Fold:
Amino acid sequence: QAVMGVQVVVSLLAASVMQKMAPHCSFARWLLCNGSLYRYKHPSDEELCALAGKQRPKAKRDRRMNGVTDDKPLSVPRDIDLRLDTSPITAVDALVLRYFLEYQWFVDFAIYSTAVYVFTEGYYCLVDPQKETNIGVLWCLLTVVFSVKVFFMVMRHYFRSEEGGERSVCLTFAFFFLLLAMVALVIQEEYLEFGLEPGLAGVSSNLESILKQRGWEWTLPLAKLAFKLGLVALCSFLGACLTFPGLRLAQTHLDALRMAADKPLTQVLLHLSFLAPVLVVVMWIKPISRDFLLHAPMGKQTVQIMSDSAYNTTRLWTIVGLCLLRLAVTRHHLQAYLGLAERWVEQMRKEAGRIAVLEIQRKVRTRELGWELGSGHGHRPPADPHCPQITRIYCYVSVVSLQYLGPIILTLHCTLLLKTLGHHSWGLYPEPPPLPPAATAAPPRPGSEDREDVRAAVEQITGILGGIFTPLFFRGFFAFLTWWVAACQVVTSLFGLYFHQYLAAS
Structure:
């Protein structure tokens, strides 16, 4: 018998390739630095003075030699014909992007994780190993954990804001999603068909038989309550983490539609990608999704369009397709964010009066860096003496990329876990057998040797965990988690649309 199975070898190979190829071949770096995204440069003092018809300002040294000590800031009319120069983002520019290394590692890990999962799915389809652990599930679980870690890393900066407005927004939405999660958990399965209650009932039944053997049956209600409270707390935390990604998505969606005003097909794709979380939410509302397709009204009769298993398969493929659609329009959203500097200049030209040159450069620079007021970073962009060109780099675009790609990656891998751990089928090969009953743990063998005792203990622990966490439980848990991520995106993005179209304009 081989020491390492095929899945372990492929997993180690994928980890090695990811580490060695990252400096040379990276999908995350290609997504930002393939030349399709361009940034706006802030104008110099000479350019602004030339547009305003003023003489080129003297250097500070020349002014001191001439005895000029007037420190009055240089100003120009607001309605000058200012046009910002553009430059494509290159790999050299990406070296100083804020959180670029974290962005690159996370996105590349998600790509390799998906590749390993696809291999394990094909491996199980062709070989059908019975006693091997699915390594693809481990990669997907790690991707889910890293997604939450990335959300928490970005949210920390909103809590460090000097004004505290972003902190208040996060706390408000966290409390709102706490209430929404409690409401979602009490809705009956006839309306929201997660399958969470049947899964918890099976866990409770299996856990009760184990606890009774040890006289701990009194802890069963506490365990159920702790699970529900932990799930609600997780939902509240995810909702707070997805608040600003949803608000940012609404802003970039509106700007991307303006940029694609003469491209109807692009606008259709942008609308479909924005409505993708809504479709995911609707697919778990039983009266208007499963019941409608399984018992479609046709005159006075009802027609069954598809079976239960076919609907589950269709739902999985639909979510995967929507994730790929949102990935396909990533460039439009990122370019819409990068166009904030040009939008501010256009707004400035509509105003009357004068404006300081430093104010124009500060506005454009802060939008280059993403350190705009209200972004959770205070007033000043960071100064880096080792990088004199940092003011010409969009140091925040990688964080915006994380805010856009993070929910997509989280939704996709929750769906993959739902398929595998929930014993669903892709419809490409015969469906797995029905969910097996709870496994009973074999008692330890008395009088056996040390090695057999260790093996028996491992088998006993595995049997207990397999009896508690059944596929029915995983089916309900990951269905709820997938639905909840989509629901958070729907709430925050719709609120963002209302905010940017009505509140921000006023």
About this structure: Residues 471-503 form the longest helix (33 residues). Strands lie at 38-40, 75-77, 86-88, 296-298, 301-303, 354-356. Residues 441 and 463 are 5 Å apart (CA to CA).
